[in-house]
Amino acid sequence: xxxxxxxxxxxxxxxxxxxxxxxxxxxxxxxxxxxxxxxxxxxxxxxxxxxxxxxxxxxxxxxxxxxxxxxxxxxxxxxxxxxxxxxxxxxxxxxxxxxxxxxxxxxxxxxxxxxxxxxxxxxxxxxxxxxxxxxxxxxxxxxxxxxxxxxxxxxxxxxxxxxxxxxxxxxxxxxxxxxxxxxxxxxxxxxxxxxxxxxxxxxxxxxxxxxxxxxxxxxxxxxxxxxxxxxxxxxxxxxxxxxxxxxxxxxxxxxxxxxxxxxxxxxxxxxxxxxxxxxxxxxxxxxxxxxxxxxxxxxxxxxxxxxxxxxxxxxxxxxxxxxxxxxxxxxxxxxxxxxxxxxxxxxxxxxxxxxxxxxxxxxxxxxxxxxx
Length: 372
Hints:
Layout: H1 7-16, H2 21-37, E1 51-52, H3 62-98, H4 117-145, E2 154-161, E3 164-169, E4 178-181, E5 183-187, E6 192-198, E7 203-207, E8 211-216, E9 222-226, E10 232-238, E11 250-256, H5 258-268, H6 278-294, E12 322-323, E13 328-329, H7 332-340, H8 342-345, H9 358-369
Parallel strand pairs: 1-10, 2-6, 5-11
Antiparallel strand pairs: 2-3, 3-4, 6-9, 7-8, 7-10, 10-11, 12-13
């Protein structure tokens, strides 16, 4: 029998195994409302930053400040052009409409005084200058943000898989390198070099609040960079169609203070903590045995014999905020639903639906919950 810590976790588990379709619609509508409410077209203000969706109308890092300014500049120019054209068309229509019709064909002027060409020349010249200025502005902004800064605080290698993200923290000291998945943690106020790759098809890395889009190309490593000036959670997404679950290939960037980040990074290098009581040790051994039988072929857990490379690295899984590439919250209910029936949640993903007993399901889940 499955065990839950709260009624909320049990409800989440039931939902992810296939609850009433109307509930799914309600959740989707709620998500749309949240996204719309979070899409305020303004630069970030000096306030507490908690979480940000996929709005590209805000900027929280130096790579996007100039881009957002350019965006609003182009919008203003477009509105001015449309307004001028509308006024001229309306004025011409009114002037044309008040003219008195000639009494006879014989009175119609064959020739007109002057010419409208000067107005055409003036309009073309103004349009050319505006377009040229916009193009130069665009090129200056792109050149300014294109390359990663030389003083990058660290290098993170991001590799796209169908349909999740492998995150590897590089270091000159090989003993301090480690791999995680679907969650990038960075210190605020420091530029981070991002090296992008893929093991299968083309994906595209995008964190709209921090950086623009860049593709991951098979056989090629592209380089971009990010920097967050305020702490918070920034949503990222694959934006290049990459198969059936493209829409569920998300990730988050968690920006922390440098002290918090170093604490987290040092903890990632430690093995999982073991219980101290005899009962806890026996339960952990049983739970880990279930994980090793069903999951270790595909997943890695540092400090154990599990060394699979097909799926995400699960070391310190419970420190992550989401699972299944930001598809589900990292709660006991969602975790149980994902383990028991991943194909219901993300059809076509490489994790098979295993025919496991309730005891093994509980054991796997309990073992994963120790990975803090």
